[in-house]
Amino acid sequence: MSDYIEGYVRRARAAQAEAEGWPQEYADRLTEAAARAVYDNAEDLARLAVDETGMGDYEDKVAKNRNKARIILADLADKKSVGVIARHPETGITEIAKPVGVVAAITPVTNPIVTPMSNAMFALKGRNAVVVSPHHRATRSSGKAVELIQRNLKAAGAPEHIVQIIDEHSRENTRELISLADVVIATGGMGMVRAAYSSGRPALGVGAGNVQCIVDEDVDIDAVVAMTVAGRAFDNGIVCTAEQSMIFPAKEEAEVVSALERAGAAVLPRDAKPAAAALRAALFTEDGMNRHLVGQSALAVAEAAGLASLGVNIPGGVKAIAVFADGPGAADGLSGEKMCPVISLYAYDTFEEAVGVAKANLEYEGKGHSVSVHSNNKEHIEYAGLALPVSRVLVNQTCSTNAGGSEYNGLAGTNTLGCGSWGNNSISENLTYKHLINISRIAERLPESRFPNSVLK
Prior knowledge:
The protein is built from 15 helices and 17 strands. By secondary structure, it is an alpha/beta fold. It has two domains: about 5-205 and about 430-445, Aldehyde Dehydrogenase, Chain A, domain 1, CATH 3.40.605.10; about 210-410, Aldehyde Dehydrogenase, Chain A, domain 2. The strands form four sheets. The chain has a seven-stranded parallel beta sheet with strand order 10-13-14-9-8-15-16, sandwiched between helices. The chain has a five-stranded parallel beta sheet with strand order 5-4-3-6-7, sandwiched between helices. The protein has a three-stranded antiparallel beta sheet with strand order 1-2-17, with no helix packed on it. It is globular.
Protein backbone atom coordinates (compact mmCIF):
# COMPACT_ATOMS: atom_id res chain seq x y z
CA MET A 1 0.00 0.00 0.00
CA SER A 2 1.22 3.50 -0.81
CA ASP A 3 1.61 6.19 1.83
CA TYR A 4 -0.26 8.50 -0.57
CA ILE A 5 -3.63 6.72 -0.42
CA GLU A 6 -3.15 5.57 3.15
CA GLY A 7 -2.74 9.24 4.04
CA TYR A 8 -6.16 10.08 2.62
CA VAL A 9 -7.81 7.26 4.53
CA ARG A 10 -5.95 8.07 7.75
CA ARG A 11 -7.05 11.72 7.59
CA ALA A 12 -10.60 10.64 6.78
CA ARG A 13 -10.71 8.33 9.79
CA ALA A 14 -9.55 11.10 12.10
CA ALA A 15 -12.22 13.46 10.75
CA GLN A 16 -14.89 10.80 10.96
CA ALA A 17 -14.01 10.03 14.59
CA GLU A 18 -14.81 13.67 15.36
CA ALA A 19 -18.05 13.42 13.36
CA GLU A 20 -19.28 10.56 15.57
CA GLY A 21 -20.33 13.16 18.14
CA TRP A 22 -22.38 15.37 15.82
CA PRO A 23 -26.01 15.94 16.78
CA GLN A 24 -28.68 15.64 14.07
CA GLU A 25 -28.92 19.38 13.63
CA TYR A 26 -25.22 19.72 12.84
CA ALA A 27 -25.20 16.80 10.40
CA ASP A 28 -28.12 18.45 8.63
CA ARG A 29 -26.39 21.83 8.61
CA LEU A 30 -23.30 20.37 6.92
CA THR A 31 -25.43 18.44 4.45
CA GLU A 32 -27.05 21.72 3.42
CA ALA A 33 -23.63 23.38 3.16
CA ALA A 34 -22.55 20.77 0.61
CA ALA A 35 -25.71 21.29 -1.44
CA ARG A 36 -25.36 25.06 -1.24
CA ALA A 37 -21.83 24.89 -2.66
CA VAL A 38 -23.09 23.45 -5.95
CA TYR A 39 -26.38 25.34 -6.06
CA ASP A 40 -24.71 28.73 -5.62
CA ASN A 41 -22.02 27.97 -8.22
CA ALA A 42 -24.19 26.12 -10.73
CA GLU A 43 -23.15 28.18 -13.77
CA ASP A 44 -19.39 28.11 -13.20
CA LEU A 45 -19.40 24.40 -12.43
CA ALA A 46 -21.52 23.62 -15.48
CA ARG A 47 -19.18 25.57 -17.74
CA LEU A 48 -16.14 23.85 -16.28
CA ALA A 49 -17.70 20.40 -16.73
CA VAL A 50 -18.62 21.00 -20.39
CA ASP A 51 -15.26 22.57 -21.24
CA GLU A 52 -13.22 19.86 -19.54
CA THR A 53 -15.14 16.76 -20.61
CA GLY A 54 -16.47 17.95 -23.97
CA MET A 55 -19.79 16.31 -23.08
CA GLY A 56 -23.30 17.49 -22.40
CA ASP A 57 -25.13 20.78 -22.64
CA TYR A 58 -24.26 23.85 -20.55
CA GLU A 59 -27.81 25.05 -19.86
CA ASP A 60 -28.95 21.56 -18.90
CA LYS A 61 -25.99 21.14 -16.57
CA VAL A 62 -26.84 24.41 -14.86
CA ALA A 63 -30.38 23.14 -14.32
CA LYS A 64 -29.08 19.78 -13.14
CA ASN A 65 -26.70 21.36 -10.63
CA ARG A 66 -29.47 23.46 -9.13
CA ASN A 67 -32.27 20.91 -9.24
CA LYS A 68 -30.26 18.01 -7.85
CA ALA A 69 -28.95 20.11 -4.98
CA ARG A 70 -32.45 21.32 -4.15
CA ILE A 71 -34.28 18.00 -4.59
CA ILE A 72 -31.77 15.88 -2.68
CA LEU A 73 -31.60 18.37 0.18
CA ALA A 74 -35.41 18.54 0.41
CA ASP A 75 -35.60 14.74 0.39
CA LEU A 76 -33.08 14.47 3.24
CA ALA A 77 -34.46 17.34 5.32
CA ASP A 78 -36.86 15.43 7.56
CA LYS A 79 -34.93 12.15 7.79
CA LYS A 80 -33.36 11.02 11.07
CA SER A 81 -29.81 9.70 10.78
CA VAL A 82 -28.39 10.25 14.28
CA GLY A 83 -29.14 8.34 17.48
CA VAL A 84 -32.61 6.86 17.94
CA ILE A 85 -34.29 7.06 14.54
CA ALA A 86 -37.34 4.86 15.14
CA ARG A 87 -39.29 3.13 17.90
CA HIS A 88 -41.66 0.26 17.14
CA PRO A 89 -43.74 -0.54 20.26
CA GLU A 90 -45.59 -3.36 18.50
CA THR A 91 -42.36 -5.30 17.93
CA GLY A 92 -40.30 -3.94 20.83
CA ILE A 93 -37.60 -2.75 18.43
CA THR A 94 -35.76 0.54 18.82
CA GLU A 95 -33.47 1.56 15.95
CA ILE A 96 -30.26 3.52 16.53
CA ALA A 97 -28.30 4.97 13.60
CA LYS A 98 -24.51 4.92 13.54
CA PRO A 99 -21.97 5.86 10.86
CA VAL A 100 -20.40 3.36 8.46
CA GLY A 101 -17.03 5.16 8.58
CA VAL A 102 -15.00 6.15 5.52
CA VAL A 103 -16.79 6.15 2.17
CA ALA A 104 -14.88 5.84 -1.11
CA ALA A 105 -16.89 7.51 -3.89
CA ILE A 106 -15.96 6.77 -7.50
CA THR A 107 -17.22 9.53 -9.81
CA PRO A 108 -18.05 9.21 -13.54
CA VAL A 109 -16.94 11.56 -16.32
CA THR A 110 -20.59 11.90 -17.37
CA ASN A 111 -21.67 13.45 -14.05
CA PRO A 112 -18.60 15.05 -12.46
CA ILE A 113 -20.37 17.70 -10.35
CA VAL A 114 -23.60 16.44 -8.81
CA THR A 115 -22.40 12.90 -8.16
CA PRO A 116 -19.63 13.94 -5.73
CA MET A 117 -22.07 16.47 -4.27
CA SER A 118 -24.74 13.88 -3.55
CA ASN A 119 -22.24 11.34 -2.21
CA ALA A 120 -20.85 14.01 0.12
CA MET A 121 -24.37 14.91 1.24
CA PHE A 122 -25.29 11.28 1.97
CA ALA A 123 -22.01 10.72 3.82
CA LEU A 124 -22.36 13.88 5.92
CA LYS A 125 -25.97 13.09 6.75
CA GLY A 126 -24.77 9.82 8.27
CA ARG A 127 -21.72 11.41 10.00
CA ASN A 128 -19.24 9.72 7.70
CA ALA A 129 -16.10 10.91 5.94
CA VAL A 130 -15.87 10.60 2.15
CA VAL A 131 -12.94 10.40 -0.25
CA VAL A 132 -13.86 11.12 -3.87
CA SER A 133 -12.00 9.43 -6.72
CA PRO A 134 -12.68 11.52 -9.84
CA HIS A 135 -12.62 10.29 -13.42
CA HIS A 136 -9.30 11.10 -15.09
CA ARG A 137 -11.12 13.19 -17.72
CA ALA A 138 -12.97 15.28 -15.12
CA THR A 139 -10.42 15.97 -12.40
CA ARG A 140 -10.69 19.77 -12.63
CA SER A 141 -14.49 19.92 -12.56
CA SER A 142 -14.91 17.34 -9.79
CA GLY A 143 -12.00 18.94 -7.96
CA LYS A 144 -13.63 22.37 -8.12
CA ALA A 145 -16.95 21.01 -6.86
CA VAL A 146 -15.24 19.37 -3.90
CA GLU A 147 -13.16 22.50 -3.22
CA LEU A 148 -16.34 24.58 -2.97
CA ILE A 149 -17.94 21.99 -0.71
CA GLN A 150 -14.85 21.98 1.51
CA ARG A 151 -14.94 25.77 1.71
CA ASN A 152 -18.54 25.75 2.93
CA LEU A 153 -17.85 22.96 5.40
CA LYS A 154 -14.85 24.80 6.82
CA ALA A 155 -16.98 27.90 7.33
CA ALA A 156 -19.45 25.74 9.25
CA GLY A 157 -16.69 24.39 11.50
CA ALA A 158 -16.48 20.86 10.07
CA PRO A 159 -13.30 18.76 10.42
CA GLU A 160 -10.84 19.66 7.67
CA HIS A 161 -10.72 16.25 6.01
CA ILE A 162 -14.32 15.14 6.30
CA VAL A 163 -14.62 15.47 2.50
CA GLN A 164 -11.52 14.88 0.36
CA ILE A 165 -10.72 14.24 -3.31
CA ILE A 166 -7.73 12.37 -4.72
CA ASP A 167 -5.54 14.81 -6.65
CA GLU A 168 -3.33 12.20 -8.32
CA HIS A 169 -5.71 10.03 -10.27
CA SER A 170 -4.83 6.54 -11.44
CA ARG A 171 -6.53 3.17 -11.54
CA GLU A 172 -4.04 1.91 -8.98
CA ASN A 173 -4.86 4.72 -6.56
CA THR A 174 -8.60 4.12 -6.97
CA ARG A 175 -8.23 0.38 -6.44
CA GLU A 176 -6.16 0.99 -3.33
CA LEU A 177 -8.70 3.47 -2.00
CA ILE A 178 -11.62 1.09 -2.39
CA SER A 179 -9.65 -1.67 -0.67
CA LEU A 180 -9.12 0.55 2.40
CA ALA A 181 -12.49 2.28 2.75
CA ASP A 182 -15.37 0.96 4.85
CA VAL A 183 -17.97 1.34 2.07
CA VAL A 184 -17.56 1.94 -1.67
CA ILE A 185 -19.98 3.83 -3.92
CA ALA A 186 -19.19 3.04 -7.56
CA THR A 187 -20.92 5.25 -10.11
CA GLY A 188 -19.53 4.90 -13.62
CA GLY A 189 -18.30 2.26 -16.04
CA MET A 190 -18.99 -1.41 -15.38
CA GLY A 191 -15.27 -2.19 -15.12
CA MET A 192 -14.87 0.01 -12.07
CA VAL A 193 -18.17 -1.15 -10.62
CA ARG A 194 -16.99 -4.76 -10.85
CA ALA A 195 -13.68 -3.76 -9.24
CA ALA A 196 -15.63 -2.20 -6.36
CA TYR A 197 -17.65 -5.36 -5.83
CA SER A 198 -14.48 -7.48 -5.85
CA SER A 199 -12.61 -5.17 -3.45
CA GLY A 200 -13.55 -7.12 -0.34
CA ARG A 201 -15.44 -4.09 1.00
CA PRO A 202 -19.20 -3.48 1.02
CA ALA A 203 -19.98 -1.85 -2.33
CA LEU A 204 -22.92 0.03 -3.76
CA GLY A 205 -22.77 0.10 -7.55
CA VAL A 206 -24.98 0.86 -10.51
CA GLY A 207 -25.90 -0.96 -13.70
CA ALA A 208 -26.21 0.13 -17.30
CA GLY A 209 -29.17 2.27 -18.30
CA ASN A 210 -31.46 1.67 -21.27
CA VAL A 211 -34.78 3.29 -20.40
CA GLN A 212 -37.74 2.05 -22.41
CA CYS A 213 -40.63 4.45 -22.89
CA ILE A 214 -44.01 2.76 -23.46
CA VAL A 215 -46.81 4.95 -24.81
CA ASP A 216 -50.34 3.65 -24.26
CA GLU A 217 -53.33 4.38 -26.51
CA ASP A 218 -55.15 6.58 -24.01
CA VAL A 219 -52.69 9.49 -23.72
CA ASP A 220 -52.15 12.90 -25.29
CA ILE A 221 -49.59 12.00 -27.99
CA ASP A 222 -48.26 15.53 -28.39
CA ALA A 223 -47.68 15.98 -24.66
CA VAL A 224 -46.07 12.55 -24.19
CA VAL A 225 -43.81 12.87 -27.23
CA ALA A 226 -42.69 16.33 -26.12
CA MET A 227 -41.78 14.91 -22.69
CA THR A 228 -39.93 12.01 -24.29
CA VAL A 229 -37.89 14.19 -26.64
CA ALA A 230 -37.03 16.52 -23.76
CA GLY A 231 -35.87 13.55 -21.71
CA ARG A 232 -33.88 12.06 -24.57
CA ALA A 233 -32.17 15.38 -25.34
CA PHE A 234 -31.46 16.47 -21.75
CA ASP A 235 -27.73 17.11 -21.29
CA ASN A 236 -27.21 15.67 -24.80
CA GLY A 237 -28.54 12.29 -23.67
CA ILE A 238 -25.71 11.64 -21.26
CA VAL A 239 -27.70 10.62 -18.17
CA CYS A 240 -28.45 6.96 -17.49
CA THR A 241 -32.11 7.76 -16.83
CA ALA A 242 -32.70 9.23 -20.32
CA GLU A 243 -35.38 7.68 -22.51
CA GLN A 244 -33.72 5.42 -25.11
CA SER A 245 -36.59 3.83 -27.02
CA MET A 246 -40.18 4.88 -27.62
CA ILE A 247 -42.72 2.08 -28.07
CA PHE A 248 -46.02 3.39 -29.40
CA PRO A 249 -49.32 2.15 -30.90
CA ALA A 250 -48.92 1.28 -34.59
CA LYS A 251 -52.21 2.96 -35.43
CA GLU A 252 -50.80 6.23 -34.05
CA GLU A 253 -47.57 6.13 -36.07
CA ALA A 254 -48.32 9.08 -38.35
CA GLU A 255 -49.37 11.20 -35.38
CA VAL A 256 -46.29 10.15 -33.39
CA VAL A 257 -43.95 11.06 -36.25
CA SER A 258 -45.60 14.47 -36.62
CA ALA A 259 -45.43 15.02 -32.87
CA LEU A 260 -41.75 14.09 -32.82
CA GLU A 261 -41.03 16.69 -35.47
CA ARG A 262 -43.06 19.32 -33.64
CA ALA A 263 -41.11 18.53 -30.48
CA GLY A 264 -37.80 19.20 -32.23
CA ALA A 265 -36.73 15.71 -33.30
CA ALA A 266 -35.58 14.73 -36.77
CA VAL A 267 -37.22 11.45 -37.80
CA LEU A 268 -35.47 9.18 -40.27
CA PRO A 269 -38.13 7.72 -42.62
CA ARG A 270 -38.79 3.99 -42.36
CA ASP A 271 -37.41 3.44 -45.85
CA ALA A 272 -34.16 5.36 -45.15
CA LYS A 273 -32.29 2.12 -44.53
CA PRO A 274 -28.85 3.39 -45.63
CA ALA A 275 -29.15 6.36 -43.28
CA ALA A 276 -30.22 4.12 -40.39
CA ALA A 277 -27.31 1.80 -41.11
CA ALA A 278 -24.87 4.72 -41.16
CA LEU A 279 -26.27 6.01 -37.88
CA ARG A 280 -25.96 2.57 -36.33
CA ALA A 281 -22.38 2.22 -37.55
CA ALA A 282 -21.45 5.64 -36.14
CA LEU A 283 -23.01 4.95 -32.73
CA PHE A 284 -21.48 1.57 -32.04
CA THR A 285 -18.04 0.00 -32.32
CA GLU A 286 -16.86 -3.50 -31.48
CA ASP A 287 -16.34 -2.27 -27.91
CA GLY A 288 -19.86 -0.85 -27.57
CA MET A 289 -21.04 2.76 -27.64
CA ASN A 290 -18.71 5.05 -29.62
CA ARG A 291 -17.08 7.08 -26.82
CA HIS A 292 -16.47 10.00 -29.19
CA LEU A 293 -20.24 10.52 -29.49
CA VAL A 294 -21.08 10.30 -25.79
CA GLY A 295 -22.80 13.50 -24.72
CA GLN A 296 -22.60 15.08 -28.20
CA SER A 297 -25.41 17.01 -29.87
CA ALA A 298 -27.84 15.57 -32.41
CA LEU A 299 -26.17 17.63 -35.12
CA ALA A 300 -22.73 16.26 -34.21
CA VAL A 301 -24.09 12.71 -34.33
CA ALA A 302 -25.63 13.36 -37.75
CA GLU A 303 -22.32 14.71 -39.04
CA ALA A 304 -20.40 11.72 -37.68
CA ALA A 305 -22.83 9.38 -39.44
CA GLY A 306 -22.59 11.31 -42.71
CA LEU A 307 -26.36 11.58 -42.98
CA ALA A 308 -26.21 14.61 -45.30
CA SER A 309 -24.29 12.60 -47.89
CA LEU A 310 -27.12 10.07 -47.82
CA GLY A 311 -29.75 12.71 -48.56
CA VAL A 312 -30.88 13.17 -44.92
CA ASN A 313 -30.38 16.74 -43.77
CA ILE A 314 -30.55 17.42 -40.06
CA PRO A 315 -31.15 21.15 -39.50
CA GLY A 316 -29.41 23.06 -36.74
CA GLY A 317 -31.38 23.28 -33.53
CA VAL A 318 -32.69 19.72 -33.75
CA LYS A 319 -32.87 18.24 -30.25
CA ALA A 320 -32.78 14.54 -31.11
CA ILE A 321 -32.71 12.03 -33.96
CA ALA A 322 -35.44 9.37 -34.06
CA VAL A 323 -34.89 6.17 -36.03
CA PHE A 324 -37.04 3.07 -36.58
CA ALA A 325 -35.28 -0.04 -35.28
CA ASP A 326 -35.31 -3.23 -37.33
CA GLY A 327 -36.56 -5.18 -34.34
CA PRO A 328 -36.31 -5.44 -30.56
CA GLY A 329 -33.43 -6.82 -28.53
CA ALA A 330 -30.55 -8.49 -30.32
CA ALA A 331 -32.28 -7.97 -33.68
CA ASP A 332 -30.84 -4.45 -33.80
CA GLY A 333 -28.07 -2.70 -31.86
CA LEU A 334 -30.31 0.36 -31.74
CA SER A 335 -32.18 -1.50 -28.98
CA GLY A 336 -29.32 -0.69 -26.58
CA GLU A 337 -28.20 2.36 -24.65
CA LYS A 338 -27.19 5.36 -26.75
CA MET A 339 -25.52 8.04 -24.63
CA CYS A 340 -26.37 10.82 -27.07
CA PRO A 341 -29.72 12.23 -28.30
CA VAL A 342 -30.81 9.32 -30.53
CA ILE A 343 -34.10 7.56 -29.82
CA SER A 344 -35.21 4.22 -31.30
CA LEU A 345 -38.81 3.76 -32.44
CA TYR A 346 -41.00 0.64 -32.21
CA ALA A 347 -44.66 0.28 -33.16
CA TYR A 348 -46.96 -2.26 -31.47
CA ASP A 349 -50.46 -3.66 -31.93
CA THR A 350 -51.24 -4.70 -28.34
CA PHE A 351 -49.99 -3.43 -25.00
CA GLU A 352 -48.69 -6.91 -24.20
CA GLU A 353 -46.57 -6.68 -27.36
CA ALA A 354 -45.25 -3.29 -26.24
CA VAL A 355 -44.13 -4.74 -22.92
CA GLY A 356 -42.53 -7.61 -24.81
CA VAL A 357 -40.50 -5.17 -26.90
CA ALA A 358 -39.38 -3.33 -23.76
CA LYS A 359 -38.40 -6.60 -22.08
CA ALA A 360 -36.40 -7.78 -25.10
CA ASN A 361 -34.54 -4.47 -25.19
CA LEU A 362 -33.81 -4.64 -21.47
CA GLU A 363 -32.55 -8.20 -21.79
CA TYR A 364 -30.23 -6.90 -24.49
CA GLU A 365 -28.98 -4.06 -22.24
CA GLY A 366 -30.08 -2.16 -19.16
CA LYS A 367 -31.87 -4.90 -17.25
CA GLY A 368 -32.73 -3.71 -13.74
CA HIS A 369 -32.67 0.02 -14.38
CA SER A 370 -35.88 1.90 -15.32
CA VAL A 371 -38.80 2.22 -17.71
CA SER A 372 -41.35 4.95 -18.24
CA VAL A 373 -44.99 4.18 -18.94
CA HIS A 374 -47.34 6.86 -20.23
CA SER A 375 -50.81 5.52 -19.55
CA ASN A 376 -54.06 6.16 -17.68
CA ASN A 377 -54.87 2.46 -17.55
CA LYS A 378 -54.04 1.08 -14.09
CA GLU A 379 -54.12 -2.51 -15.31
CA HIS A 380 -51.63 -1.74 -18.07
CA ILE A 381 -49.34 0.10 -15.66
CA GLU A 382 -49.36 -2.79 -13.19
CA TYR A 383 -48.92 -5.29 -16.01
CA ALA A 384 -45.73 -3.50 -17.06
CA GLY A 385 -44.57 -3.30 -13.45
CA LEU A 386 -45.11 -7.03 -12.95
CA ALA A 387 -43.58 -8.13 -16.24
CA LEU A 388 -40.49 -5.96 -16.61
CA PRO A 389 -37.17 -6.62 -14.83
CA VAL A 390 -36.56 -3.07 -13.63
CA SER A 391 -36.18 -1.28 -10.31
CA ARG A 392 -38.22 1.79 -11.28
CA VAL A 393 -41.38 2.28 -13.33
CA LEU A 394 -41.98 6.00 -13.92
CA VAL A 395 -45.63 6.74 -14.71
CA ASN A 396 -46.57 9.78 -16.82
CA GLN A 397 -43.24 11.49 -16.13
CA THR A 398 -40.05 12.33 -17.99
CA CYS A 399 -37.79 9.55 -16.80
CA SER A 400 -34.59 11.44 -17.55
CA THR A 401 -35.19 14.09 -14.91
CA ASN A 402 -37.45 12.21 -12.48
CA ALA A 403 -36.09 8.69 -11.96
CA GLY A 404 -33.41 10.11 -9.67
CA GLY A 405 -36.09 11.55 -7.42
CA SER A 406 -38.43 14.46 -7.93
CA GLU A 407 -40.79 16.73 -6.07
CA TYR A 408 -43.54 14.94 -8.01
CA ASN A 409 -42.73 11.35 -7.02
CA GLY A 410 -41.67 9.46 -3.92
CA LEU A 411 -38.31 8.16 -5.16
CA ALA A 412 -35.26 9.16 -3.12
CA GLY A 413 -33.28 12.06 -4.56
CA THR A 414 -29.97 10.74 -5.88
CA ASN A 415 -27.52 10.44 -8.75
CA THR A 416 -26.83 6.75 -8.13
CA LEU A 417 -29.57 4.32 -9.15
CA GLY A 418 -29.26 0.71 -8.07
CA CYS A 419 -30.38 -1.99 -10.51
CA GLY A 420 -30.67 -4.98 -8.21
CA SER A 421 -29.44 -8.45 -9.06
CA TRP A 422 -30.59 -7.86 -12.65
CA GLY A 423 -27.79 -5.30 -13.03
CA ASN A 424 -25.36 -7.13 -10.69
CA ASN A 425 -25.98 -4.53 -7.99
CA SER A 426 -26.47 -4.90 -4.25
CA ILE A 427 -29.48 -2.54 -4.14
CA SER A 428 -32.55 -2.16 -6.33
CA GLU A 429 -33.47 1.36 -5.25
CA ASN A 430 -32.10 4.87 -5.36
CA LEU A 431 -28.98 5.20 -3.24
CA THR A 432 -29.35 7.65 -0.37
CA TYR A 433 -28.12 8.37 3.16
CA LYS A 434 -29.73 5.22 4.62
CA HIS A 435 -27.24 3.09 2.71
CA LEU A 436 -24.44 4.89 4.58
CA ILE A 437 -25.58 4.24 8.13
CA ASN A 438 -25.43 1.18 10.33
CA ILE A 439 -28.43 0.46 12.52
CA SER A 440 -28.30 -1.10 15.97
CA ARG A 441 -31.60 -2.67 17.04
CA ILE A 442 -32.63 -2.93 20.67
CA ALA A 443 -34.98 -5.89 20.97
CA GLU A 444 -37.13 -5.87 24.14
CA ARG A 445 -38.84 -8.97 25.43
CA LEU A 446 -42.50 -8.96 24.43
CA PRO A 447 -45.17 -9.84 27.04
CA GLU A 448 -46.69 -12.48 24.77
CA SER A 449 -45.53 -14.63 21.89
CA ARG A 450 -46.03 -12.89 18.56
CA PHE A 451 -46.49 -16.19 16.71
CA PRO A 452 -49.77 -18.11 16.58
CA ASN A 453 -49.84 -21.43 18.44
CA SER A 454 -50.87 -23.17 15.25
CA VAL A 455 -47.46 -22.75 13.58
CA LEU A 456 -45.88 -26.17 12.84
CA LYS A 457 -48.09 -28.17 15.22
